Inverse folding.
């Protein structure tokens, strides 16, 4: 059975054309087909938030979408934020505030928080906690992450 | 885990989607926001051989005024409903509940109609639509019908939808004058699945007596539970704290049928349901009174 679909997806401003099975999750497409392993896969049922990416600018779980659904759409992953020599201001703030321990959850936090800070540049602590309610961290606890968001907001 | 293979269709019109459903029947599953269906596919708890993706059907995304009430297209994203001023004005119960549904990233993608068609008895929108006397428009290739919300949910993850039918629209009637609303739930962590919850809409008559009380419990059985007996106790009386307490106890003791699981025992859920029922009734009657005397803003 020919059950393959050819899709064109723009990821981090680069258009990619690939042929995929419909059951391929967007998270696996990014990691395996495009080699963009910054997007992490944790629970695969929408709870942990590690796979959060921007879909047409809005944060979504990439494990709860199929790659074929991204046809014609724009995806932004953590790879688009900064480089080791030139960190994104939010990455910089995470680093300085010790908001990263093992780092597994970090891409998901960053991709949830970048659009949040764009929409709400001066958030309250409660709003920050609400914004990260859909992301799990099992190392640091959330206090340092909240601190990092405050620091990034202050510097803007 | 990864989903089992399926054939994928991405129609751009409702007619086209209905043709796929008519052709494949039980083998096919419509895909709305996917925030409940895709986890089920990932765990292989569901293995449909055909997926009909509704995300490209632009005619299903809208919020429109309708005679004092609202019409909401089934594919309207939860995020959009959450921030829509018309929803805030005309369906304040929906507006108040939206931010409590799952997480922001889930609401970006999750849809208003998808949550209803999924029929999880712990889903906020299920209880809220019943409390508001919502009506659902179901379409198949052959016919179209309207089903009241309280007849739509027939069991655990089971609705009145036939395999070839699609939920296309939700109609929320205007709230009657002198009405108040409230919703409360208990979750382990903020935004988790609900352990116990209740939505209510009450209406007072011009003498300040309860004319109608529509109280709907979630996570209280294999489908949402409407507390008819508690409503009967309230009808025709001024809502005193004692009466509210008695009605809340009646509902929690005799009307709901919660189960036990790893998150909470049935007994604990029953206790929570009674406490929440008292709180929501109190708040809803206060809001109804405030609205009567013109104390509240929009309301």
């Amino acid at each position: 059975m020919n059950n393959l679909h050819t899709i064109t997806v723009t990821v981090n401003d680069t258009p990619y054309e690939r042929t995929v099975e419909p059951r391929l999750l967007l998270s696996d497409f990014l990691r395996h087909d495009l080699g963009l392993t910054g997007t992490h896969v944790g629970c695969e049922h929408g709870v942990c938030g590690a796979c959060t990416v921007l879909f047409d600018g809005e944060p979504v779980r990439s494990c709860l979408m199929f790659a074929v659904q991204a046809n014609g759409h724009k995806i932004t992953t953590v790879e688009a934020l900064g480089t080791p020599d030139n960190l994104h201001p939010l990455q910089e703030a995470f680093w300085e505030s010790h908001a990263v321990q093992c780092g597994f959850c970090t891409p998901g936090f960053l991709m949830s928080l970048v659009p949040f800070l764009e929409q709400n540049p001066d958030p309250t602590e409660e709003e920050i906690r609400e914004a990260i309610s859909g992301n799990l961290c099992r190392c640091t606890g959330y206090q340092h992450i909240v601190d990092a968001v405050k620091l990034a907001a202050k510097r803007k | 885990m990864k989903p089992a293979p399926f054939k994928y269709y991405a129609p751009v019109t409702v007619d086209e989607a209905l043709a796929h459903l008519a052709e494949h029947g039980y083998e096919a599953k419509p895909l709305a926001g996917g925030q409940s269906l895709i986890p089920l596919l990932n765990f292989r708890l569901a293995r449909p051989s055909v997926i009909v993706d509704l995300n490209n059907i632009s005619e299903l995304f809208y919020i429109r005024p309708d005679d004092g009430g609202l019409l909401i297209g089934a594919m309207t994203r939860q995020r959009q409903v959450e921030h829509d001023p018309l929803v805030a004005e005309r369906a304040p119960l929906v507006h108040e509940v939206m931010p409590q549904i799952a997480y922001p990233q889930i609401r970006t993608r999750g849809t208003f109609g998808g949550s209803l068609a999924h029929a999880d008895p712990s889903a906020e929108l299920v209880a809220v639509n019943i409390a508001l006397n919502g009506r659902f428009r179901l379409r198949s290739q052959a016919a179209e019908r309207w089903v009241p919300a309280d007849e739509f949910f027939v069991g655990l993850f089971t609705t009145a939808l036939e395999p070839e039918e699609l939920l296309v629209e939700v109609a929320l009637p205007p709230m009657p004058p002198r009405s108040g609303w409230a919703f409360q739930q208990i979750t382990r962590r903020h935004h988790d699945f609900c352990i116990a919850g209740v939505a209510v809409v009450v209406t007072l008559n011009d003498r300040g007596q309860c004319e109608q009380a529509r109280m709907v419990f979630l996570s209280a059985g294999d489908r949402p539970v409407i507390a008819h007996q508690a409503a009967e106790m309230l009808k025709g009386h001024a809502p005193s704290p004692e009466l509210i307490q008695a009605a809340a106890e009646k509902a929690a003791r005799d009307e709901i049928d919660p189960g036990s699981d790893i998150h909470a025992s049935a007994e604990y859920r029953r206790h929570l349901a009674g406490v929440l029922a008292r709180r929501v009734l109190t708040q809803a009657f206060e809001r109804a009174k405030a609205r009567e005397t013109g104390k509240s803003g929009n309301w």
Q: What stands out?
A: Helices of chain A lie at 26-33, 89-96, 106-119, 125-131, 143-155. The radius of gyration of chain A is 16 Å. Chain A has a mean pLDDT of 96.
